[in-house]
Design brief:
6 helices; mainly alpha; two-stranded parallel sheet; 201 residues
């Protein structure tokens, strides 16, 4: 999941660097300040995308489904691979003991080769399927976040909403007044909208 979040985060990282900034506050002070003070309309504000992806219920639900499916596919491939390995060892054992005619051995050997190729093709196909599902899930989450931010900013009227990643500020934002961090509001709004959407279905 962490890897998935990293892919999601990389998809919408901003492109502006804030050169003038205030001193960093502690995390507790930052949280308290963010909760009590809202940025004024027309401000350039920012969101911590990693936090949003960790705390957004829709992102957690969707990625959990895909991760569970990926794990199931991996277990299925391992099971099939284990059976093929046992069949190969059984074949070698019979050959070594002279329990199989040459013509039968040739047929069995060809079948084992076909089974191995089929397993490789199956694994590649399933890997492609799960990659596509991860991509679709990523797009669904990013689309939901983007749509929410448009509606949110229509009300707030900020000049720009930037994105940053990690527990500390990082490029494109080196440092900033913590009152410009609107992550808490965005996470809360996203989760409320998601609950409302689920209840309507």
């Amino acid at each position: 999941m962490k890897k998935t979040f990293t892919l999601f985060a990389a998809a919408i990282t901003g492109a502006l660097f804030i050169s003038s900034c205030s001193l960093f506050e502690s995390k507790d002070a930052q949280k308290e300040t963010t909760e009590k003070v809202s940025a004024a309309s027309g401000s350039i504000v920012y969101i911590n995308l990693d936090r949003i992806l960790r705390e957004y219920d829709m992102a957690n639900d969707l990625t959990s489904v895909v991760n569970a499916k990926a794990q199931g596919i991996e277990e299925d491939i391992n099971r099939r691979g284990g059976k093929l390995e046992r069949d190969q060892k059984d074949f070698e054992n019979k050959i070594n003991k002279g329990l199989m005619t040459q013509s039968t051995a040739e047929v069995q050997y060809k079948k084992l080769q076909d089974d191995q190729l089929n397993l490789q093709n199956y694994a590649a196909r399933k890997q492609q399927e799960i990659q596509e599902e991860f991509a679709v899930t990523q797009n669904q989450i990013l689309d939901a976040i983007g749509s929410f931010l448009k509606e949110y900013n229509a009300e707030k009227g900020y000049a720009m909403i930037l994105t940053t990643q990690g527990d500390n500020l990082s490029l494109p934002i080196a440092c900033a007044d913590t009152t410009l961090d609107i992550t808490n509001e965005v996470v809360e709004g996203l989760n409320k909208a998601y609950v409302k959407e689920k209840n309507s279905k």
